[in-house]
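Example: Sulfite oxidase.
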Amino acid sequence: MVHIINAKSISCGEFRADLKTYNLEEINKHDNKKDGIWVIFKQGVYDITDFVDKHPGGPSKILMAAGSSIEPFWAIFANHNTQEIYELLESMRIGNISKENVVFNTINENDPYSKEPIRHKALKINGQKPFCAEPPPSLLIESFITPTELFYVRNHLPVPEIDIKTYSLELIVGEVTRKELKFEDIKKYPKYTITSAIMCGGNRRSEMAKEKQLRGLSWGIGAVGNAIWTGARLCDILKDLKINEDDYNHVQFEGYDLDPSGTPYSASIPIHKGMDCRADVILAYEMNGQIIPRDHGFPVRVIVPGVVGARNVKWLAKIIVTKEESQSQWQQRDYKAFSPSTDWDNVDFSTAPAIQEMPVISAICKPEPSETIKVINGKINVKGYAWSGGGRKIIRVDVTNDQGKTWHTANLNAEDYNAKEGKYWSWTLWSIDLPVKKDCKETEIWAKAVDASYNVQPESFRNIWNLRGFLCNAYHRVKVKLEH
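Written out as structure tokens, the predicted fold is:
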């Protein structure tokens, strides 16, 4: 039943003592018309079942929030933030959700994944334990800054529970602990903010897997996000330790996340990147202006802009300045790429360097594969993202729908306009109104990006295939149907 009230008397989403309080598990079940479609806004729970088909933006977007929060969507579609919309939503109010309701009520103490954070239901899950998920492609390019709740999640182990009051970060040089920093000690360093994309090394792996079987999670194009990160610069912390860069080769990072043997997730970067203030490596404690959430590294994670996501270690426990690269599995026997002729019978991981800076890449987010697109004035609208590692600026995105006979240059609509040369850490959003042939019933769209070093994406996956499915940056191809 929908409660009709005088919505003007309260603020939308405030706790209401006259209504029932639900838990997240119960709300999550209401994600379809049969059981009812419920959504959350702040502390309010709303039954929008009868409204879905009347939604001016169509039912598809609002259904992404079914059984979960609509707040990340309203952060993108800011036209909802009006008193009129708040009153409309409040008229559909049925209850509350407790602020403290951040984990499911039923917890299996023997399951290391029993106290995981609740994730937004719009995320497509590629792995449950450890949790790995990505947002729908159509949402990726709606906002230059990816809403935190819709940022892809790539965990390698259970999410640790950390009390910020007892949190400490150990700083080790060689084999000697030089210092331990509490959370407040880290915050005493100059506050520094960057806007940077992070991309999983396996982004777009599902496409490479079509070329030949490989091992790894079946990521689509959504294992990437662009966020505002705030924290202390690593170079400032290392300089406090009076380190001579010439005496060391690597900076290792260890997390508080542990495998069953008690071994932490670990990765490393070259010492020159850690010591160079121009590299903008930071120990981030804020994401998009808020305390960094558990899934993304609470209370502190390393952000190494322009580098594969695997080196951006979450839940930071130790920083180790050493001559040795991290000996962890994720540095030595994973996140490396090989020749297409290398298979699991002849692979030698010691022969390949660990992936650091990422290659140039792009993806088409709209339209999505097999979607039917209405042709307007002989054209269809195509949107996507492009990015290159190492701080290299995207200078061009080329799009074709005639197998490369004719290339059209896309408009670069959004990038970090304050970035300095060599520090383009953010992605670039692009779009184009692409001409299509009259009466053509379907077409295949290709996209390729070019960066400031004139690196360009390879044409196909055939010659860059590798057994772990990393660096999947061939032309992105999307087949769609056309409605004239």
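The domain at 360-482 is CATH 2.60.40.650 (Immunoglobulin-like).
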